[in-house]
Predict the 3D structure of the following.
Amino acid sequence: MTGTAEATAGTVAARADDVVKTYGSGDTLVDALRGVSIEFGAGEFTAIMGPSGSGKSTLMHCLAGLDTVTSGQVTIGDIGLAGLSDNEMTRLRRDRIGFVFQAFNLVPTLTARENITLPLDIAGRSVDQEWYDAVVDRLGLRDRLDHRPSELSGGQQQRVACARALVGRPDIVFGDEPTGNLDSRSSGEVLSILRAAVDEFGQTVVIVTHDPRAASYADRVVFLADGQIVKELRRPSADDVFEVMKNLDVAAPSTTDDEAR
């Protein structure tokens, strides 16, 4: 996988340029994102953290094309999201973006195999069998492919969701609290898989998490407060992340009013 890493070195998988996102109007106006600019390098694992209401999930949803920005620009690879039609946005999300959510979002009537290939089937794309086999085996799902979600543990269901996100070879995989519904063992398994997706498969992974342990798996941790990026850490320990979060949680209420003006 070294060649993949070298090929993606220096490439930007996603970028936000001076992104502003507001909700409501007048007295109910909320500034969720206030001029956020950030790049996500290809072949890198980034965790986004921040206190409740900091804008971290809003940023991910805007990056993934699940929400529109009020102003600014979001780019996936070389494609700007502004001005895309609904059909173009659907194709972009289907072909170039993978998703792993806190809720596994598996179709209960389909087997694990059918859930994994569902996005490709909908798109009318053939499955790259060699890649599919590599993903399935790395995720330890070979003997679970004929099981339906109700026959799988939470950790196994999330592994199926990871496989579904990876099998189409998207430019970038987004995870919104991907371990939020899992016990510590299953959480560690899923995080190891996402880490391996970067290290072994050359994928780009961006997750939103509140868990310092989850963030410690990342190459980079980006901290938001009041809709702005306030700090970054590289290759931090869980303790490093916890210390930053502790200070953000304390500081957030006192800075909100001043910065909102």
Q: What stands out?
A: The radius of gyration is 18 Å. Residues 2-260 form a domain with the Rossmann fold fold (CATH 3.40.50.300).
